[in-house]
Design brief:
This protein is of the alpha+beta class and 503 residues long. It has 3 domains: 208 residues, 3-Layer(bba) Sandwich (FAD/NAD(P)-binding domain); 80 residues, Alpha-Beta Plaits; 92 residues, Glutaredoxin (3-Layer(aba) Sandwich). Helix content is 26%, strand content 28%. Strand 29 and strand 30 form a beta hairpin. Helix 7 packs antiparallel against helix 8. The two termini are 32 Å apart.
Length: 503
């Protein structure tokens, strides 16, 4: 972190703190991006409006399979697994799709509340060189050809090479950057709360013409998490205990004596996606880039994976290793993934309404979703395990996540994900040792000679032919596949990790 002295309009002296990257918002997406940049030795700061990372409410819960893999790639998945509950939670219609046969170490979802997720993430980034400005927000910014001047709500000025908005669905960064947010207005709203009851609620989840309703007993034994769909679209203001009482009576005929609320919140099915994930030196990730109804638990995982896709690219541009055009691949790769997830959430939301006509659709869809091929395709989409970035034609591995294989190396048995803990690119030579000379990229790309005995199986795709080498990006996706030759490798190295260093 550097201090730069500038003159203000009154000719007074103002110390302006400089960072390579400033992230607005310290939720899961913001913290994941901060971790990725810190692992790449980039000077990064997070601006977080809360005084700390303690959430008053538990908020959303759940991480899907590919996101667990992403955390495993960084060596921290066990921290989350220790506090969460493993479950088969990929759903479509009323069908829970078992993905226990998927070729991954994590063929499941993890039930874990956001307050736990944020606490674990905050402890992780505290181990890394990340500066956090607590208790303030980004109040405005102005970008120029060299960087972004950032004004904080407490008046402190910051200067950054890049500014990333991870500041939620109402993102100030997105609005101030002039990025359009097209999509669909809300048609329904839900209340969610943690309260105490004087009457025992019915078990299970109830579906009706309005939507979905249910209760979940919390760990303390006396508090319940309540979710209910309102009969009409609720107002924009903060909901009250009376609002919750009326909504429950409309469904159940009683409010079960709700009292002593810990928190109450309202969410809707508004669905929107940023038209651009980048304007100049300003970028978006997480809910700032896409909002949707929480059906299927897509939001948190989408945001974390946005961050992992963007982090290493932004680091290489900041360090001067790659041209700024590399950042264009962030929108090109992540925008279609989120658009597809938004279509799923809209479909799943519609299937939660169980009037007589929709119930007929739900029954048909649920029957189809239980069949093997549709099950795999839908579970692949929901889990994120089927993502393929468009890197051109070639081997089925190209553009897909690298399987976490058990490798035999000179240092003994190693998992692929263990080799990605430092978020560095990896060339895995699975043929004859010494086949490849990547000396011009040796300062950026690690090379490991290894062998693997077993089938190469990809989620949804199935068994594929074994490659002789793979070039793996820091986010775990395959950038090049070897077929016994070096054809295309120098181009792939230069495209993703910069031009060769002169001898």
């Amino acid at each position: 972190m550097e201090e730069r002295v500038i003159l203000d309009v009154s000719d007074g002296i103002v110390a302006m703190t400089e960072h390579a990257v400033v992230i607005a918002g310290g939720g899961p997406a913001g913290m994941m991006l901060a971790a990725e940049l810190a692992l790449a030795k980039v000077d990064v700061a997070v601006v977080e409006r809360r005084p700390d990372h303690v959430l008053a409410d538990a908020r959303a819960g759940g991480i899907h399979s590919r996101t667990i893999e992403v955390l495993d790639q960084r060596g921290v998945a066990d921290r989350f697994l220790a506090e969460g509950q493993v479950a088969q939670a990929a759903t479509f219609g009323t069908t829970v799709m078992d993905m226990s046969d998927f070729p991954t170490r994590h063929p499941y979802s993890l039930g874990i509340f956001q307050n736990q997720i944020e606490r674990i993430m905050a402890a992780w980034i505290a181990e890394l060189p990340v500066r956090i400005y607590y208790g303030c927000e980004v109040a405005g910014f102005a970008q120029d050809d060299a960087g972004v001047d950032v004004r904080l709500s407490d008046g402190e000025p910051l200067r950054a090479r890049y500014l990333v908005g991870c500041d939620g669905g109402r993102s100030l960064i997105r609005k101030a950057a002039g990025i359009e947010f097209p999509g669909w207005d809300p048609t329904r709203s839900n209340l969610i709360a943690e309260v105490e009851l004087t009457e025992e609620p019915p078990p299970g989840v109830r579906h009706d013409a309005a939507g979905v309703h249910g209760f979940h007993r919390m760990q303390d034994g006396k508090t319940f998490r309540v979710v209910t769909t309102e009969q009409q679209l609720g107002p924009a203001g903060e909901p009250t205990l009376r609002d919750l009482s009326e909504a429950l009576i409309a469904v159940y005929g009683t409010d079960f004596g709700i009292h002593n609320p810990t928190w109450i919140s309202r969410f809707t099915d508004m669905t929107r996606q940023a038209a651009a994930y980048r304007v100049g030196r300003v970028l978006l990730a997480g809910d700032a880039a896409h909002v949707h109804y929480p059906a299927g638990g897509q939001g948190l995982s989408l945001g974390v994976q946005d961050a992992v896709n963007l982090g290493w690219k932004l680091a290489q541009v900041v360090e001067g290793t790659c041209q700024e055009s590399l950042l264009d691949t962030y929108h090109a790769e992540r925008h279609p993934v989120a658009a597809r997830a938004l279509r799923y959430t809209m479909a799943q939301t519609a299937l939660q309404r169980h009037d007589e006509r929709i119930k007929a659709v739900v029954d048909v869809v649920s029957e189809v979703a239980s069949m093997d091929e549709p099950r795999k395709r839908l579970a692949g989409l929901i889990s994120g395990l089927d993502i393929r970035y468009d890197l051109g034609e070639g081997h089925p591995l190209l553009g897909r996540r690298m399987p976490d294989l058990d490798l035999i190396t000179a240092d003994g048995r190693l998992r692929v994900f263990e080799l990605l803990h430092d978020a560095r690119p990896l060339l895995l030579d699975l043929g004859q040792p010494g086949d490849f000379d990547i000396t011009p990229w040796a300062d950026r790309v690690q090379m490991v000679d290894a062998s693997y005995q077993g089938e190469w199986e990809l989620p949804v795709v199935g068994v594929v032919s074994a490659p002789t080498a793979v070039l793996i990006r820091p986010d775990g996706y395959v950038a090049w596949v070897g077929d016994g030759t070096h054809h295309g490798l120098p181009d792939a190295l230069a495209t993703w990790f910069g031009p060769p260093t002169a001898a």
